[in-house]
């Protein structure tokens, strides 16, 4: 009996590939969607990657079907290729203040990650300035004062 018997399937392998590589989801979110233990999922991927790739290559039709199902459940966000007319520096600063990571920002603004990174670099000085002002204007909590 395999220690990964409740995880190991072509369906989970196809889901892992799509969610991790195409959508750049973190492992904990993928484990939640697959309803498996996060640590076991990581162990399974690390230990069985070569074997699962062989199985997937031998069952391309099944993997394609599973992949289509997962793509319907979790479609890729539409990318705004027209540039950045909808992105404002104030909106980016607000998103950063709300706790969004840099990696989440491109998806939030539906922008190509490479173009967003370039735009972010070009506007970094203004973003930093507005962020500093916003942080200085926030009221302190009791734990911050201590």
Walk me through the structure.
This protein is mostly helical. It has two domains: 10-73, no CATH class; 89-145. It has nine helices and no strands. It has helices at 10-22, 27-34, 38-58, 60-73, 89-97, 102-108, 113-122, 124-137, 142-145. Helix 1 (10-22) crosses helix 4 and helix 5 (89-97) crosses helix 8 (124-137). The chain is elongated. The model has no long low-confidence stretch (mean pLDDT 83).
**What is the beta-strand fraction?**
under 5%
Quickly count the helices.
9
List how many beta strands DSSP finds: 0
What is the total number of structural domains? 2
Q: Percent range for helical residues?
A: 55-70%
Straight-line distance between termini: 54 Å
Report Rg. Answer: 20 Å
Query: What is the helix/strand order?
Result: HHHHHHHHH
- Low-confidence parts lasting 5 or more residues at pLDDT below 50? none
Global structural class: mainly alpha
Profile the largest sheet.
none
Outline the secondary-structure elements.
Elements: H1 10-22, H2 27-34, H3 38-58, H4 60-73, H5 89-97, H6 102-108, H7 113-122, H8 124-137, H9 142-145
Task: Write a compact overview of the structure shown.
The protein is 68% helix and 0% strand. By secondary structure, it is mainly α. The chain folds into two domains: 10-73, no CATH class; 89-145.
Q: What attributes does this structure have?
A:
146 residues; 0% strand; mainly alpha; 68% helix; single chain
């Amino acid at each position: 009996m395999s220690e990964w018997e409740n995880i190991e399937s072509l369906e989970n392998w196809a889901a892992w590939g799509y969610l991790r590589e195409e959508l750049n989801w973190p492992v904990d979110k993928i484990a939640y969607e697959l309803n498996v233990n996060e640590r076991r999922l990581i162990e399974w991927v690390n230990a069985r990657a070569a074997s699962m790739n062989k199985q997937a290559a031998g069952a391309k039709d099944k993997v394609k079907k599973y992949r289509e199902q997962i793509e319907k459940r979790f479609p890729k966000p539409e990318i705004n290729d027209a540039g950045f007319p909808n992105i404002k520096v104030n909106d980016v600063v607000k998103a950063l203040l709300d706790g969004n990571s840099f990696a989440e920002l491109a998806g939030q603004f539906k922008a190509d990650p490479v173009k967003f990174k370039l735009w972010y670099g070009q506007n970094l000085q203004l973003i930093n300035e507005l962020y500093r002002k916003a942080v200085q204007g926030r009221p302190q909590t009791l734990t911050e004062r201590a």
